[in-house]
Amino acid sequence: MNLDVLLVVFAGVFGLLVGSFSNVLIWRLPRRENVAFPPSHCPQCDHRLAPRDLVPVGSWLSLGGKCRYCRAPIRARYPAVELLTGLGYAVIAALFPFPTFGAGTLGLMLLFTLLLVASVIDLDTYTIPDELTLPGVALGLAFAWLNTRNGTAEMGLPTLPQAVQGALLGAGLLVTIDLLGSWVLRRFRERQYPERPIGYQQLSLGLLAGAWLGPWWGLGAALVSAVLNLAARRVVRIPEIVTLGGFLVSLLLGSAGFGPGLILMVQGALAAAGAAALVAGMYWWLRHEPGSADGEGEADAPFDPSAMGFGDVKLAAVIGAFLGWERLLVAVVVAVFAGAVLGLAQVALKRENRVKFGPYLALGAVVALLWGGEVVAAYRGLLGL
């Protein structure tokens, strides 16, 4: 057995072990439990699990899918997560060999785990924990820095500037869809429950300012608005007819040749809104009030109609940080297509579509990871670039 095959096998075994820990994250993060203590235990009888109960896949098979101590059924999802992680890690090790890509291989494995854990939690709870996404963005940028230092960025992995751009554009693209979609859902009426000090109103302002002034001035405008809210101790309203309406008018003017030009205006607007969204997400995470900014908090909390969960915005930033903005776009296109196909299928079967956008986005990211380079190269070839 040569070294490359041995590393792939080792990666698969390592993935099985990580998949076992992923099940811990899937269970404990939504319940705000410590992921390290207490040690693993049966959720039904609370009996502490012995090492022989924690062998990935093998324990579930040997026990017939039941707890050794109380005989309560163990969901088949547990070995499925372990198998998927093992398979995913093996495929990544084969396509991105560790001797060539070094830390970049580990970064892609980490991304795969973040996507899988976020998807399963989203399917269960219709939320994506900030504990996954916001540190995930930072880790994506850290691995991009390693890519830059080790020279692996030349082999398709993003450099640090490309990762920053990917994270900002990822968050900005989805939050812009959310802003405009939510505005339409409200029939262009103002929000009834604006957040204080920073929320969707500040993101809308960043979107408009970024189109004309660039991403960092756009972020600055959003932060100034947040400071004014803090100083006034109330929401200083910014009419959306001015911010979102102004953004749409700006795009028309940019397409007519005014200002920096349409492409630069779109890039500046999305990056500014994305940066403001990540700052807002970090603020509400540190405040431990997840329902205040993303509409995914307590069921009885008042909220305005939302076109997309804020967790999806942060997940897109994670994907952009690990894969760069070009593969991010591939991921979004695949996610939209997959969501549309499944939605049409469920309409035909007269079933309600209760799957949120996060799992589709994760699926698109996996496709972009495996084949995104070829898709981007083919697209550039069509354009003659």
Explain what you see.
The chain has 385 residues and is mostly helical. The chain has a domain at 1-95. It has helices spanning 3-28, 58-62, 77-95, 98-101, 103-125, 130-150, 160-185, 200-213, 215-232, 240-255, 262-286, 291-294, 310-323, 325-348, 357-383. Helix 7 crosses helix 8, helix 7 (160-185) runs parallel beside helix 14 (325-348) and helix 13 packs across helix 15. The longest helix is centred in the C-terminal third of the chain and has 27 residues, at 357-383. The protein is globular, with a radius of gyration of 22 Å.
Give me the secondary-structure category.
mainly alpha
**What is the tally of beta strands?**
0
Task: Tell me, briefly, the overall form.
Answer: globular
| Low-pLDDT sequence parts | 289-299
Give average pLDDT, whole number.
91
Beginning-to-end CA distance, first to last residue? 42 Å
Largest sheet: none
Q: Classify the beta-strand content into a percent band.
A: under 5%
- The SSE string, one letter per element, is HHHHHHHHHHHHHHH
Helical stretch count?
Answer: 15
Radius of gyration: 22 Å
Give the helix level as a range of percent: 55-70%
What is shown here, in short?
The chain is mainly α and 385 residues long.
Topology of this structure?
Layout: H1 3-28, H2 58-62, H3 77-95, H4 98-101, H5 103-125, H6 130-150, H7 160-185, H8 200-213, H9 215-232, H10 240-255, H11 262-286, H12 291-294, H13 310-323, H14 325-348, H15 357-383
Helix pairs in contact: 1-3, 1-5, 3-5, 5-6, 5-13, 5-15, 6-7, 6-13, 7-8, 7-11, 7-13, 7-14, 8-9, 8-10, 8-11, 9-11, 10-11, 11-13, 13-14, 13-15, 14-15
